[in-house]
């Protein structure tokens, strides 16, 4: 399909494209869409990434090959509020100039900070605002202990959230649970903007099944960072119960930076060092390690804001045919794992629940069809190709 200038999309991301998230959750979606719409990205790059000339040049070459323009701005970290306010003002000014020059019909904002910039662009140029929420950001700040519930920052952010929703021409959210919850919000009800659910997707060309894991040892896996939202102590508690059922059990953790904290957590949980293997891997190497796992964990602190979360590792596990242990209260996780029989969802974090989970998990793993169900579920729900297609449908609709 040929590109038309009046369908230009200006994409704003407060995450840097040189970060793993920027590459997997921004660039990977936009590359296949660039043949249909002229796309220009404004991102905010961390200082260390901006100083890496080779990686910056490689990203420019990748985007240029796809026909995507790029304006990388400097990200400012501290002091937090003034630094973010400066970035918003600077980003809004730069983005407005780009929107006018490119005749952008859509400004696509990834999350709340970028959406504040996009709102200024919309008001200055008339471009339609696609508010890609990614989660309930103000509530995440409270649930994560960064802001007090009744504090000025939270109240101000919730007010701005309402302004963004009332001004959005289209909203994208990650989960059906969050879409249902938003129906209760006064700001949403006042306008009822069209809303599309697009979960966090994975490149299933990379995250695909390989040879089934060896029968022994039994390998329970974990991929990603530990701490903050991911409940690694609880994951180790579950593994300790699993290892009582399977004396050969080993835990494989794929993690780049938190090795000291992981060893400390394992010692607290009474997990012997000989049962634990930690490997650091680049993104492209992760599927090779997933192929060794019989099951893997994605256990997240349940909180109000987490109903809007779609864990990336869930898509990656299932794409590789690995059943997942998650927990209730996190996006659509329980509905997916339990409803499609590709894993199980914990409802509590205690020994009785872990014992019951162990029984259910080993019964599930004995089902010869479970790997195919995992792969099929990933293809249906979490395909990067399908996610890009859904964004393309929004672009086509809103560009009219």
TrEMBL record:
GO function terms (MF aspect): glycosyltransferase activity
Glycosyltransferase subfamily 4-like N-terminal domain sequence ranges: 32-199
One Pfam family recorded for the sequence: Glyco_trans_4_4
Keywords, comma-separated and alphabetical: Transferase
Name used for this protein in its record: Glycosyltransferase involved in cell wall biosynthesis
Organism of derivation: Roseiarcus fermentans
Species lineage: Bacteria, Pseudomonadati, Pseudomonadota, Alphaproteobacteria, Hyphomicrobiales
